[in-house]
Amino acid sequence: MPTKQDIISAFQFRHACKQFDPAKTICDEDFDFILETARLSPSSFGFEPWHFLIIQNQDLRTKLMKVVWGAQGTLPTASHFVAMLYRKDDMRFDSTYLADFMRNIQKLPEEIIEKKKAKYQKFQATDFNLLDNPRHMHDWAGKQIYIALGNMMTAAAMIGIDSCPIEGFDIAETEAVLSEAGVLDSNKMGLAVMVAFGYRTNPQLVKTRQTQEQIISWIR
Ligand SMILES: Cc1cc2nc3c(=O)[nH]c(=O)nc-3n(C[C@H](O)[C@H](O)[C@H](O)COP(=O)(O)O)c2cc1C
């Protein structure tokens, strides 16, 4: 097992790397390791509302440069560039996608599927009030993508790979670029966030954070 110090060192090593060394490529084994931490990430009810586009095509990256203002240094230099998508109506309690998912992926028996569906319906309809506005559903699905995002960046840092999370884009324009390229069906999926991976060229800045006392309250 890595030591606590190993893990904290990885958290210190990870920073929003604004520019990568374009001459350095992450090897397949290491990138597959990063992807595996996304795949194993937890999600609400275990429904995995995600899909990951690994954008290695330079032509598409150039098109994205026009709309992704937060990745001007990373899009052209990243070894690997990932657009993290969330599923839309597939995530509704009554979708055939989820019924199939519970049956084929989660391998649940029919009576459990019915119970889980009823619980999930209450969760979506009243607990989290997700059904009255598609935006609520999309934001809720999108939130879970960020769990995979965090895991991927931490895992990368633990093996000495740099990353930068990216929300600096116009969602509609960026989805349009991906749709025109034929890699996004915007009726079914939306863009939550992106993340670039590679190897730094510049030293990282000193990390600034509030203290634990400023952000944590213990209720005993
Ligand atoms: C969800 C999210 C979106 C971000 N979007 C961008 C971005 O578009 N471009 C960028 O250069 N940095 C982006 N950042 C990086 C943050 O600015 C950075 O994480 C923060 O300032 C803390 O610095 P550190 O990560 O180097 O410790 C983003 C971070 C997060 C978590």
Strand numbers in spatial order across the main sheet: 1-2-4-3
Global morphology: globular
Alpha carbon gyration radius: 19 Å
Give the overall pLDDT as a whole number: 97
Distance between the termini: 32 Å
Q: Structural class, from secondary structure content?
A: alpha+beta
Account of the 3D structure:
The mean pLDDT is 97. The chain has helices spanning 4-13, 28-39, 58-65, 96-105, 110-127, 134-158, 171-180, 212-215, and strands at 50-54, 80-87, 162-166, 189-198. The longest helix has 25 residues, at 134-158. The chain has 220 residues and is α+β, with helices and mostly antiparallel strands. Helix content is 44%, strand content 13%. Helix 1 crosses helix 6 (134-158) and helix 2 crosses helix 6. A four-stranded antiparallel beta sheet has the order 1-2-4-3, with helices on both faces. The chain folds into two domains: 4-87 and 139-215, NADH Oxidase (3-Layer(aba) Sandwich), CATH 3.40.109; 93-130. The two termini are 32 Å apart.
Topology:
Elements: H1 4-13, H2 28-39, E1 50-54, H3 58-65, E2 80-87, H4 96-105, H5 110-127, H6 134-158, E3 162-166, H7 171-180, E4 189-198, H8 212-215
Antiparallel strand pairs: 1-2, 2-4, 3-4
A few lines on this structure:
This protein is of the alpha+beta class and 220 residues long. The chain contains 8 helices and 4 strands.
List keywords for this structure.
single chain; 220 residues; NADH Oxidase; 2 domains; four-stranded antiparallel beta sheet; 13% strand; globular
